[in-house]
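Risk register update: the risk of archive-format incompatibility is retired. Evidence:
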Amino acid sequence: MAGHSQFKNIMHRKGRQDAIRSKLFSKLAREVTVAARSGLPDPDKNSRLRLAVQNARAENMPKDSIERAIKKAAGGEAEHYEAIRYEGYGPGGAAIIAEALSDNRNRTASIVRSLFTKYGGNLGETGSVSFLFTRAGEIVYPSKAGSAEEVLEAAIEAGADDVQSDETGRIVTCAFASIGEVSAALSSRLGEAETVKTVWKPQTTTLVDEESALSLMKLVAALEEEDDIQNVFTNFEVSDEVMRKLTAA
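Archived output:
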């Protein structure tokens, strides 16, 4: 079975249980700052900032912290962060993309390279694995937003490409270029989403065994622990037996 989505769900649940809130809020504030610098410091007039604020609120980030990040950016007091994408291969040949917002490119590159090496991976050049993924929009709703059928109908009408539903929620996928339009249409029908973000969706998957899957989990976790790393995406496929072991771990 394809393991990418299930693996991300496992990591997401474990992350929610174990994450230090201040570290999470720091990453969210960094995205709010960069978004505020990218246009007007007003969420109503800056779509990227609006999404950043929405995602911060979804994680229960204090309102004053969000406003402080916006004011720092507007006043030119915040650090200047550079968006950087790192690509490489992890254990078992699985492709990995790590997105960073860094104020020191050399520091971040050194950290990422050392983590890939430590956990049996190889950091490559930009573009070395991104061809295996598609840039897409991902809009997440809680299950209470509507039944699987209701959300699917709304997604189709909004122009989305796919919907994955389970007891924890509804994940709507759309084209990268239409994320603003689709999220706005869904909002008018279903209310505000939990998160609206861009993702790297695997086009192909790589089969890995249990040992490689466990090493991948450690590498992804280590990358996500780093302050400079905002998002990590990977592709792989595992058997039902290995997925049950990972889920039970």
